[in-house]
């Protein structure tokens, strides 16, 4: 069986699994990393959103064989370490706004939000309260309807990291 | 406070017990364990009528021996709190937590009465406890209503016992002692932690103790806004749902499902080939399709797609929407129009509400480990006792051999009242002889999962001389499956009898539907047709549809009588609490402000669950807004602002209540404007979140305000569902006023051309994309 090596939450890992298995299942079923959630397996719901080399992606749509040994995959579990803290400022803002309901979508929401703020910043945008365009690009489903508090938390955290 | 909570004037159970005096128990245990009766005795005065219609005579359905055995268990019908040597308290809540915040509100009740910081109260979810009979169902927004008193009784008793133990240790009298944040304070600055007292306060035998609850005026936790106790776990990804559990040997399993609703397996043509696919360990036909088990869900998806199955017909073969509509029309009960005076006018409208999906973000799923002589199940289950008893019957095992663990749930919206995933997991585990983690694919969850039934609502309201003299509503719905009964096998069996079930639906309807207005002779009746669909109640059961129809008619009555919609409602409302929330949103939402053409406000009200909510919505239906382009999205009319005022009698956690209202509003917007299932030729076409247009960021209102009214009744009402009907109705009314129409089909976009290409029916689920790295953002 083929072996695949990549960097997961700061540590190199090697897994033995067929190359076409999507990364979400390698994370969840092989490595036991369960922060990224399944909500569709179609790149639609964004519940699995994690980062690859600092950018948002859907591990449910990436065959593990597509990863290079230098690719850095960060899941919600590894997010705080990217800022050298126990909690990422986005997670703190999430707690301040008491965003979660059931919580199932929340790891994906937070990972998407962090990447969205970074992306906006790189493009020279400041995220402001009126910026619908930025929120229109956050496609994550929250079936519990926490969208309003997500907005509050993203706005609160936008200049904290 | 020196009052140790134990009542001096208690006479006997059921006799002379004051309004605030209840019976608690100190249980025999090595650490302080206190309990209170849970169920009818404890909560009869405040029980939600909606959730508890009279059950049938149980004798012929439930073995008397079972009943006696269960009833004689020493802890039957008790809920218990333990105080531990580390100074924490723990409580296993016999309810499901699916996001509605009942673990947090329960912890708050304990923190309040035990005088312990909230973060030292640990609330877990109880396994199925068959001895609780009717009392382990999470539904009808009933959790806080039914647990409010028992939890407080137990916690008050615990505090009393800790005070008594401290008095002994300090050689003081209880009246000299007070508690503060998990400690007992005594004379001369003595401080004793609860942890130190936990063992001393324990009892070797069961001791019944009368308990007096404190007055609401003394609350310091109840009624204050608190964050969820599981928020940290949720934001760090540590919160564990069923599919996150590491049960040894429980490999992923999925089911290859039929192309039409409830189709059947005739034969599998290539089981051996599929069994040889990478990672796959098993391929077995089961009741609902063909199960595959494998190392990863990804490989299960591939195996499901590779299966070549000869499918038999389903329960709705060839049926399309028009057929169901015609069937509903035939089943509609006639109106009884009384002879009316000459000048009487009428508003006469019929509304259509399409199938909607109550699919949560966590699809149907469960873990099962079935052995020849026992079984263990893990899942988010709102009726765990029925699940346990049904699975035991399926497996031919005694109920006592089946353990059902209730896990944290990733949303419910009615879904988790049923246990479709758990039942399948048990069957697959039995068939393969191995533990499984069974999960539904998203596409199956939409297409074969339970739906909120399609319905029609015919309303005729008559008015003359400034008065509404009659209001008739005939609601006709595809049958709603209440087969989860009332959380207990007795009623579950009764609901399966054709007559019993019909009666049950009507009972639920009658017990939940209220007309909050003085409209003269008022009748609201339910008729049901077609039982071939997989249905279930969706958040707020009948109310969103019934109330939306009514509130739209109210707007037409106001118009016909030349009155403002807000003033008209205010004038006809029966209840002062309803008027107060209506006034609150009208004021906070600046009702009647000038708005450009194509935009409008709508206002509506909804009473239920011992509470009442009012919603004011503003909508923008102008082309630049409805034509907004977002890839693979339905944009459409935008709700730009919502103001909601809610009175639940007493909000245990106002912040949690606000969250529930916000979520309910997102649901209301969805069912009013965007979310439905299209039925064609025996199957639903939607198969993805980009097909089923549940509210997304781009649909959610930029402005949202929730006003929590100060306590009114002093007793908590239900919160989980209340907002859906109010929000749906307000959005529908706003849409009608903005477009100058009376919308009669919901969601309003249902008749538009499909905005997506339906996925194929065979194979039943799509392959996962492989281009994820090209879409990194
Ligand atoms: S599970 Fe990956 S996007 Fe839905
Ligand atoms: S919090 Fe439940 S799906 Fe978002």
UniProtKB/TrEMBL annotation, chain A:
Pfam families: Fer2 (PF00111), Fer2_2 (PF01799). This is Isoquinoline 1-oxidoreductase, alpha subunit. PROSITE patterns: 2FE2S_FER_2. Residues 2-79 form the 2Fe-2S ferredoxin-type domain. Gene3D superfamilies: 3.10.20.30, [2Fe-2S]-binding domain. One of its GO terms (molecular function) is 2 iron, 2 sulfur cluster binding. CDD domains: fer2.
From TrEMBL, chain B:
Residues 236-315 form the Aldehyde oxidase/xanthine dehydrogenase a/b hammerhead domain. Residues 758-777 are annotated as: Disordered. GO terms for molecular function: oxidoreductase activity. PROSITE patterns: TAT. Transmembrane segments: none annotated. This is Isoquinoline 1-oxidoreductase, beta subunit. It comes from Actinacidiphila rubida.
């Amino acid at each position: 069986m083929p072996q695949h090596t990549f960097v997961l939450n700061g540590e190199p890992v090697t897994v033995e699994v067929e190359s076409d298995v999507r990364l979400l299942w390698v994370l969840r079923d092989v490595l036991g990393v369960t922060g990224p959630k399944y909500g569709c397996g179609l790149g639609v719901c964004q519940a699995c959103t994690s980062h690859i080399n600092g950018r948002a992606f859907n591990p449910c749509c990436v065959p593990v064989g597509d990863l290079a040994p230098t690719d850095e995959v960060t899941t919600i579990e590894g997010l705080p370490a990217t800022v050298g803290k126990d909690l990422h400022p986005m997670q703190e803002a999430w707690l301040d706004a008491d965003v979660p309901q059931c919580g199932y979508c929340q790891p994906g929401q937070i990972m998407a939000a962090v990447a969205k703020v970074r992306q906006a910043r790189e493009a020279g945008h400041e995220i402001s309260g009126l910026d619908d365009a930025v929120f229109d690009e956050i496609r994550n489903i929250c079936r519990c309807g926490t969208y309003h508090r997500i907005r509050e938390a993203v706005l609160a955290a936008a200049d904290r990291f | 406070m020196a009052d140790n909570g134990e009542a001096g004037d208690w006479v006997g159970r059921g006799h002379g017990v004051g309004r605030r005096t209840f019976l608690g128990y100190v249980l025999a245990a090595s650490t302080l364990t206190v309990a209170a009766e849970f169920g009818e005795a404890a909560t009869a005065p405040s029980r939600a009528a909606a959730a508890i219609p009279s059950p049938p005579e149980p004798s012929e359905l439930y073995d008397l021996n079972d009943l006696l055995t269960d009833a004689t268990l020493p802890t039957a019908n008790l809920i218990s709190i333990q105080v531990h040597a580390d100074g924490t308290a723990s409580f296993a809540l016999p309810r499901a937590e699916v996001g509605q915040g009942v673990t947090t509100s329960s912890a708050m009740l304990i923190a309040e009465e035990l005088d312990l910081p909230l973060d030292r109260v640990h609330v877990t979810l109880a396994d199925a406890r068959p001895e609780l009979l009717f009392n382990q169902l999470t539904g009808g927004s009933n959790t806080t209503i039914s647990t409010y008193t028992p939890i407080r009784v137990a916690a008050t008793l615990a505090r009393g016992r800790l005070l008594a133990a401290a008095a002994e240790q300090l050689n003081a009298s209880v009246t000299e002692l007070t508690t503060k944040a998990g400690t007992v304070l005594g004379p001369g600055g003595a401080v004793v932690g609860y942890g130190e007292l936990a063992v001393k306060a324990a009892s070797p035998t069961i001791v019944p103790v009368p308990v007096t609850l404190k007055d609401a005026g003394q609350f310091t936790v109840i009624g204050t806004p608190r964050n969820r106790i599981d928020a940290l776990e949720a934001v760090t990804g540590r919160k564990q749902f069923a599919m996150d559990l590491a049960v040894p040997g429980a490999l992923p399993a999925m089911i290859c499902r039929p192309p039409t609703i409830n189709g059947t397996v005739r034969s599998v043509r290539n089981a051996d080939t599929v069994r040889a696919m990478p990672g796959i360990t098993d391929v077995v036909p089961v009741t609902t399709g063909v199960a595959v088990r494998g190392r990863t869900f990804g490989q299960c998806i591939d195996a499901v797609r590779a299966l070549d199955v000869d499918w038999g017909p389903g329960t709705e073969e060839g049926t399309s929407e028009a057929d169901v509509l015609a069937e509903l029309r035939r089943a509609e009960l006639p109106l009884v129009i009384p002879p009316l005076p000459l000048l009487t006018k009428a508003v006469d409208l019929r509304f259509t509400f399409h199938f909607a999906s109550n699919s949560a973000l966590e699809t149907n799923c469960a873990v099962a480990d079935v052995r020849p002589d026992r079984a263990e199940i893990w899942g988010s289950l709102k009726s765990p006792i029925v699940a346990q008893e049904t699975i035991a019957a399926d497996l031919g095992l005694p109920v006592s051999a089946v353990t059902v663990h209730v896990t944290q749930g990733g949303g419910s919206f009615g879904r988790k009242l049923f246990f479709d995933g758990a039942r399948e997991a048990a069957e697959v585990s039995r068939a393969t002889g191995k533990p499984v983690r069974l999960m539904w694919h998203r596409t199956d969850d939409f297409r074969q999962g339970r739906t909120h039934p399609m319905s029609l609502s015919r309303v005729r309201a008559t008015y003359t001389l400034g008065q509404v003299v009659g209001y008739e509503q005939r609601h006709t719905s595809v049958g709603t499956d209440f087969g989860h009964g009332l959380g207990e096998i007795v009623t579950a069996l009764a609901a399966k009898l054709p007559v019993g079930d019909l009666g049950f639906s009507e009972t639920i309807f009658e017990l939940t539907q209220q007309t909050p207005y003085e409209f003269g002779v008022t009748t609201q009746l339910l008729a049901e047709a077609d039982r071939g669909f997989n249905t279930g109640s969706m958040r707020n059961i009948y109310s969103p549809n019934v109330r939306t129809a009514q509130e739209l008619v109210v707007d037409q009555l106001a118009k016909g009588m030349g009155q403002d919609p807000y003033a008209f409602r205010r004038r006809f409302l029966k209840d002062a609490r309803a008027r107060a929330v209506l006034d609150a949103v009208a004021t906070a939402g600046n009702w009647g402000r000038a708005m450009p053409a194509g935009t409008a406000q709508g206002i509506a009200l909804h009473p239920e669950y011992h509470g009442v909510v009012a919603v004011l919505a503003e909508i923008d239906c102008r082309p630049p807004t409805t034509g907004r382009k977002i890839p693979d999205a339905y944009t459409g009319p935008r709700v730009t602002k919502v103001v909601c005022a809610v009175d639940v009698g007493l909000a245990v956690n106002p912040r949690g209540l606000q969250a529930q209202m916000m979520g309910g509003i997102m649901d209301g917007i969805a069912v009013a404007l965007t979310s439905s299932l299209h039925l064609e030729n025996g199957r639903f076409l939607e198969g993805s979140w980009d097909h089923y247009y549940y509210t997304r960021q781009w649909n959610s209102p930029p402005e949202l305000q929730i006003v929590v009214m100060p306590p009114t009744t002093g007793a908590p009402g239900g919160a989980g569902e209340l907002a859906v009907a109010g929000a749906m109705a307000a959005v529908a009314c706003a849409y009608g006023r903005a477009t100058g129409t009376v919308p009669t089909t919901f969601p309003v976009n249902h008749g538009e051309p499909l905005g997506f290409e339906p996925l194929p029916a065979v194979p039943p689920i799509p392959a996962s994309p492989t281009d994820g790295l090209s879409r990194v953002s």
